[in-house]
Amino acid sequence: MQYYTLIALTASVGLNDVRAEQTTTLVPVDRLLGTQQTPSRLICTFEGTLHTPKDAVSPGIPSEPRTSQQKRSYYIDFQNNLYRREVERESFGGAGFQNSFRIDVSDGKEFKEYSPKSKNMLFHSGKYRYNPELVLRKNSATALILDREDLSVLLAAGKLPTRSISFGDVTQLRVANDPSYYTASGVGLIGDLECLILQSGPTVDPRNQYEVWLAPALSNAAVRFAYRLRGNELFRLDIAYEHDHKRPRPSRVQYFSQAATGLVLRADLRCVDYREDAQIPASMFDVAITPGMIVQRPDAADWYQAGENGERGKSVRELVALESQSGLLTNVIIIFSALAIGGGGFALYWSRILRDRAR
Predict the structure, then answer these.
(1) Strands 182-190 and 304-306: what pairing?
(2) Across 56-60, 88-92, 109-113, 327-331, which has the greatest mean pLDDT?
């Protein structure tokens, strides 16, 4: 069994002297993780700034560092494996940087990525008019429903990656933490907060590793999470908490990612709403197909426009052909919507970086 050895110095004051006494305490790792309590349901919202470093998307894009506003809301039912995320932020697409809004829901089996046309101006551009508003997926690996910043919500709720579950896997929200996956690697300080550092075993790629910092003074809440590739820190999350609650509640999240100059701040978010065990209507975990919506299904050879009752209507290819024949549309370019909204562009960017570095 893995143990932490904590050494504390206490002062004993006598009549004529002050004596320091050393106390050693052994803390098993499974007890550390066992003290973390996950709420049955969670509603929370974070607001703050998104920082895009120069050349983050590609050389010259952006030409200068950018700072914009973002808002992230979460509705999570841990017991029933249900997840919903709403993100308002600036994203990069074919027409440059634009404000975007996206809703992602999951029941652990199916993933729905919804980008309402009314809140995404890019879709009003002629060549993007047939980008899908609703994308349905069956494979969590292809669903872009978690950005790095989102991991902080799961960590703050006491959910850590396990041996068989990668970080941020929303298909396994009710799976318990696995103490055998972590080893005690040391003690560190964040400001004046003493932390116990856990190090994961190998991930799917044995060169990758997670590092989790727990704060005993905050009921062993996770205050730092780092992801390393060959020992090199690729990104880090720092989570600050409020102390005046039965359980610590996250108050601020800072996300740092690697750039040419080292780790740079990418997001700075503050919690504006946090409700544990609140009731969440079942309808929050679904997105209905509405008439005229462009839908992409995982088993469909082509995207299609929904009919009056949500049924499959004409395919996008048929719609384009009809408009071309009538002379209303002469040039339609369809670009996969994940590059345009919801942070998918940056997710693709980072997936390529990680892939290249793993070679």
Answers:
(1) unpaired
(2) 109-113
Q: How does pLDDT run across 143-156, given as a tens digit for each residue? A: 567 788 888 999 99
Query: Which residue, 192, 176, 165, 168, is CA-closest to 36?
Result: 176
Half-sphere exposure of 209 (CA within 13 A, CB side): 15
Domain boundaries, the chain: 3-27, 41-282+337-358
Please check whether residue 46 is in contact with residue 276, taking contact to mean a CB–CB distance below 8 angstroms: no
pLDDT exceeds 60 at position 21? no
Q: What's the rounded Cα separation, in Å, for the pair 154 and 76?
A: 9
**Per-residue confidence (pLDDT) for residue 98, from 0 to 100:** 80
- CA angle, 152 as apex, 213 and 176 as ends, to 5°? 75
Buried b / exposed e over 238-276, threshold 16 CB at 10 Å, is bbbbeeeeebbbbbbbbbbbbeeeeeeebbbbebeebeb
Q: Give the architecture-level CATH label for domain 41-282+337-358.
A: Clam (2.50)
Is residue 263 scored above 60 in pLDDT? yes
Residue entry with tokens 């590609």: 58
Would you give the DSSP letter of residue 32? H
SS3 label, residue 8: strand
DSSP secondary structure string for all residues of 162-205: -SSS-TT-GGGTTPPP-GGGEEEEEEEEETTEEEEEEEE---SS
DSSP per position, 146-162: --GGGHHHHHHTT----
Distance from C-alpha of 135 to C-alpha of 156, rounded to nearest angstrom: 29
Query: Pick from 174, 165, 177, 45: which is nearest to 107 by CA?
Result: 174
Cα gap 320→349, rounded to integer Å: 30
Query: What per-residue confidence (pLDDT) applies to 332?
Result: 44
Quote the CA–CA distance of 294 and 119 in Å, as a whole number: 15
Q: Which residue has the tokens 């396990």?
A: 162
Q: Are residues 338 and 348 in contact, defined by beta-carbon separation less than 8 angstroms?
A: yes
pTM for the full predicted model: 0.79
Q: How many residues does the chain have?
A: 359
Return the SS3 of 274. Answer: strand
> Quick one: what percent of the chain has pLDDT higher than 70?
72
Q: How high is the mean pLDDT of the chain?
A: 76
